[in-house]
Write a structure and sequence with these properties.
Blueprint (H helix, E strand, L loop, with lengths): L6 H14 L11 H40 L4 H10 L6 H10 L1 H11 L1
Organism: Belliella filtrata
Family: Belongs to the bacterial ribosomal protein bL20 family.
Function: Binds directly to 23S ribosomal RNA and is necessary for the in vitro assembly process of the 50S ribosomal subunit. It is not involved in the protein synthesizing functions of that subunit.
Length: about 110
């Protein structure tokens, strides 16, 4: 009895991977074994970097808040401590946006906690 293989599913799986690797450099876009490895590695990077993106943005927000706070004579930690004590619940993303794009609103927040 001949061996039965599901060629339809195999081809569909290969087409899915080759479509995803379109635009990759060299053989990574058209040679099945290379493309499969690059595809899997790309998924690993995507998973890792979704976590890293959150860390990077938090660090950026802290730098922006710190820069804005120092203009008004406070350090980042002093400002955050004062906000906590005054029970003002603004997250770092909002504070960073205020510090960058709305300096008068950020100044009002700083004056409120001073």
């Amino acid at each position: 009895m001949p061996r039965s293989v599901n060629a339809v599913a195999s081809r569909a799986r290969r087409k899915k991977v080759l479509k995803a690797t379109k635009g990759y450099f060299g053989r990574g876009k058209n040679v099945w074994t290379v493309a499969k490895n690059k595809y899997e590695k790309g998924l690993q990077y995507a998973y890792r970097d979704r976590k890293a993106k959150k860390r990077e943005f938090r660090a950026l927000w802290i730098q922006r808040i710190n820069a804005g706070a120092r203009i008004h004579g406070l350090s980042y930690s002093q400002l955050m401590g004062a906000l906590k004590k005054a029970e003002i619940d603004l997250n770092r993303k909002v504070l960073a946006d205020l510090a960058m794009n709305h300096p008068e609103a950020f100044k009002a927040v700083v004056e409120k906690v001073k």
